[in-house]
């Protein structure tokens, strides 16, 4: 890697031009200075910045830059000198992409979600990391061997992060009941959707544990929302753009709860990449926007819905007792077919775990079990 690396400075010294791996990159002197990976700038233990970056002089320049093995040797106009690993520059520069890095998109051709064994993931860090890596990459994991009791999944939740408690408690039943407070507690089919877009923050991961599934029907449906957004962008760019701009509200109310939030059906990150999707027909509340804007939105939503309900993108599966799905609620659309209780009981249990604890567990395990040290390297 280093043999082909070349560096040069702009005439004013405010930029470093790096040619590496067949690509040319321009790096701001200020960016390199505030991220200098030395003990004077960053705390070796926490990685947190020790200098006040906002106090660095705005006319800061690079006085010298050269390749030194696998690093850049840099000297700045404020007198600071450091060695900046080339690998860190490459890892931070993910390049152009429509989707956040580190994900594998899929459609109906997916042979099945990544699989994991419950007992192994509870007992062994390597098995847990393999499960979390698959969940991160595909947005879903299928876990088998979960104890067939009401809190059977708790031991694995405890390995990752705290259970998210809501107005429904912690782990809640998903089965048909009289006077249901939510349509999930009925026998009707459910359209592809994301859970709880009316919360702030929205729950990050859905844990769905099957205790019994003898009812006729009730198969789960899974759709990769990132793939659906990508297809919409390719086939109908105007619809894609509309769904990234209009932010409907979502509302849930009962006698003791009133929850509201808002957000676009397709959310982009700061680099224009799809980072989150939403769809929840049961709770969506679109504001009275100008009529022409509403017409565009309804047409775009119609096109998106046609995709996420298409057989082209949908994976079908029926959980067996002792199986559990873990689903990325920022990425996956999930639903189910209607079911009839004449065939038997359908009883699942559901809980939520947030994204920060899940991501933290994956990254710390990766750091402990491998030589990889930065989040970018494990994306």
UniProtKB/TrEMBL annotation:
Its cofactor is Fe(2+). InterPro entries: AlphaKG_dependent_hydroxylases, GBBH-like_N, GBBH-like_N_sf, TauD-like_sf, TauD/TfdA-like. SUPFAM superfamilies: Clavaminate synthase-like (SSF51197). Residues 11-83 form the Gamma-butyrobetaine hydroxylase-like N-terminal domain. Signal peptide: none annotated. Gene3D superfamilies: 3.30.2020.30, Clavaminate synthase-like (3.60.130.10). Residues 109-352 form the TauD/TfdA-like domain. CDD domains: CAS_like (cd00250). Keywords: Dioxygenase, Iron, Metal-binding, Oxidoreductase. Belongs to the gamma-BBH/TMLD family. This is Gamma-butyrobetaine hydroxylase. It comes from Halomonas halophila. The lineage of its organism: Bacteria, Pseudomonadati, Pseudomonadota, Gammaproteobacteria, Oceanospirillales.
